[in-house]
Amino acid sequence: MIRVEGARVHNLKNIDVEIPHNSLTVITGLSGSGKSSLAFDTIYAEGQRRYLETLSAYSRQFFGTLERPDVDKITGLSPVIAIEQKTTNRNPRSTVGTITEVYDFIRLLYARASIAYSKTTGEQMVRYSDEKIVELIIEKYRGEKIAILAPIIKGRKGHYRELFAGFTKKGYIYARVDGEVVEITPSMQLDRYKIHNIELVIDRLKPSVSDAERIKKSVAEAMKQGRGTLLTIPLDLKVPIAPKYFSRNLMCPTTGIAYNEPAPHTFSFNSPQGACPHCGGLGQESAADIEKIIPDRAKSIRGGAIEPLGKFKQSFVFNKLEALLVRSGYTLDTPINEMEEDDVLAILNGDSSPLRVALASAGNTIMVQWEGVIAYLESQFEDGDKGEKWVAQFAQKRPCSVCGGARLREDSLYFKIDDKNIAEVSSMSIIHLAEWLEGIEQRMSTKQATIAREPLKEIRERLRFLVDVGLGYLSLNRNSATLSGGESQRIRLATQIGSKLVNVLYILDEPSIGLHQRDNIKLINSLRQLRDAGNTVIVVEHDEDMIRAADWIIDVGPLAGRRGGEVSAMGTFSDIIEKQTLTTDYLTGRKAIEIPASRRKGRGEITIVGATGNNLKNVTVDIPLGVFVCVAGVSGSGKSSLINYTLRPALSRYLYNSYDQPLPYKEIRGLDKVDKLVLVDQSPIGRTPRSNPATYSGVWGDIRKLFEATQDAQIRGYKAGRFSFNVKGGRCEECRGAGVQTIEMNFLPDVYVTCKSCNGERYNRDTLQVKYKDRNINDVLNMTVNQSVDFFENIPSIYHKLKAIQDVGLGYLRLGQPCTTLSGGESQRIKLSSELSKRDTGNTLYILDEPTTGLHFEDVRVLLGVLQRLVDRGNSLIVIEHNLDVIKVADHIIDIGYEGGEGGGLVVARGTPEQVSRNKKSSTGRFLLKR
């Protein structure tokens, strides 16, 4: 057993817990009850601290002190690995392939077992030994007079006077210059402005078996001078024919083009030897977006048609532009849509013909060129970050024009296995890649198959783990920044299974996030596989299937915040089901989220026509307004592509003239029926301890003004800024108002320790002497939302914002609780409460992305009550969700499928939950029937 005795971290109330080794343990309970405090802030924190203590004293000096969690004793603790949601790598160079290490093995496979092809002729590249070259020369040219040459210069300009002089000193008499064999003369030179090909004549002879030794020496010399490559040409033919190339390196036998020997770094987009030189291995480039530069073609340039230049003003740029227009027969008042397209392109890209422009002073004129608006934008990059951000709004990201998004050098893409290069393999979905690799040895030569055996074994095993955790729809080249928290967590889980460690304690934070019910069993089996390998697995989870599959369950409660932090039940599923807790109430059916008696009818609709972004297959769908719409479907089917990356940016551009670029679509009708858009997603609301629910919701500004109005503050002359912990004056300068000091851990996450100067109170002594109702500003920060609602009930501006937080079930949070300690679900509900506290228009469209993340059954019930009230006020609601309790209460369901990745992107079913449940093609419908 792992035994935890007397845990008091955060809201834990001196609890004792036992966790069996080599088991799958689920810690469940209400959001905020203390699950993460037990799993991560107690067990994992102690494991991390013990690991640091194993380092030498010299190493520890670089880390500072890691505070021991507030617990009496932990025994039986194994080495701990935490797999959290917040660790997604946002580096554009990080991909699914690099995170899982699959791409490393694929690079090795291509470096050792691929076949190279010529980029010009498509022929298979060859390499010869010197002995083989001698044999081929005798066989091909027996009895013919030939020259053996060494290629020296290929397709370069220059006079090469010194080169020819060097040949003469070495005793060479002839060279082949631009296809003609000539004698090398003293002071010989070429036209320096023309492109030349120069080959040195090593020997001239009629090959025969008796001349084999001479040919061998000539071949060796030609290889030395030609850096591993030689060519032969017949001399007696009246009509010259193309030379025949021979090389020790990989070489095209027709053109003589040679590639370097492939190595793993040849196929790495993070290495200079493999990365595309144009995009540096990112696969994308930034290009000017003409639609953003000229958003309204009905305007004239004087009226501000060119957005980066703005409206006309007396400047040299506009003087040049006016001269360009006059020459083309226009004026500054001519609307853009009345100009020829070539003239518009000249405005954007520049014109090489000189222009006569008058100078403001002295009436002189000068001849200048118009560089173009795009060149003007590029010049603004030199202004630093501000200039860069300003220019970025007129640009769009697009696949690299050189590598086409493949990220690699051209040469790297001509090494193929089974007629596929490494970029094509990386762009396949994991499930299709696994299928392609099945039996690939039969499609290889015997030598290739022998070399590929070990890399293929590792690749197949890792791909199987990724499929097992429900990620078969991803591709290896998928950027890690685009992954959800659940996806990145399951990728790391698959990587850990592949690492085959034993006697390790794994702690996971809701790995089922973003996973359709259909794929749940795959995830559970993966966790069991990790357990069966000899490890202990602890999962913080709310999913019913996961709870039922667990060997051991710890239910933390009974409620959240100050009213939580106790062990409500502990044991096997059959043990805890006999206890009466909020969790067991829902597991046994004593409590349930009720299905509404009736479904709302829509009042109008938004119609998306021909959406083709990512994996969407020309989707056309009606989304009813004024109702609760749930977009469901298996992971990776295209839900986010349709709603978050097509509808939302298009509506944002329509309502707010934003620069968001939606994915491709033909038309969206009905946008005019919405007058406000609110997006509530899972992104963190703050990345430092300075951000907290009070600052994010905006209530902190009102509280500071209230303290400014107190008698104590008036006497001392304190303004509202005095009560801000983000500016100098009233805050503690030792920790700069954070209440904690940050210790950088180098290769581990940063650690925050309580400030010794202010003891975590954030403010200096003078500021803390100002009180409202006997509470100072730090006391207010330490209040829970529930306490503060009562405390500020007579201050409407503060009360309404706090009440909104309480209504979404977050009354247990402290006002000053750092946002770094909030779960994804809590962050999302803070955002939701912030929007609820604002006045809606009745025609507001709310888009929520998996709002049940981190929520217990009871929390989901509270949240659904809030969402239903929003819709009752006339607003429209679109929720992307997998939770069946949310799906079953929606008015309208849009089910996307059939599969994830390439197998998805279609509307499988739509209608009420009852209608979808009767659709036999719908995976979501099958599970709805059971509810």
TrEMBL record:
Segments forming domain ABC transporter: 312-589, 593-929
A Pfam family per the record: UvrA_inter
Protein's UniProt keywords contain ATP-binding: yes
InterPro entries in alphabetical order: ABC_transporter-like_ATP-bd, ABC_transporter-like_CS, P-loop_NTPase, UvrA, UvrA_DNA-bd, UvrA_inter
A GO-annotated cellular component: cytoplasm
Gene Ontology molecular-function annotations: ATP binding; ATP hydrolysis activity; DNA binding; nuclease activity; zinc ion binding
BP GO terms, sorted: nucleotide-excision repair
Keywords (A to Z) from UniProt: ATP-binding, Cytoplasm, DNA damage, DNA excision, DNA repair, DNA-binding, Excision nuclease, Metal-binding, Nucleotide-binding, Repeat, Zinc, Zinc-finger
Principal location: cytoplasm
Alphabetical list of CDD domains matching this protein: ABC_UvrA_II
Family matches, as PROSITE patterns: ABC_TRANSPORTER_1, ABC_TRANSPORTER_2
Location relative to the cell: Cytoplasm
Assigned protein family: Belongs to the ABC transporter superfamily. UvrA family.
Protein name: UvrABC system protein A
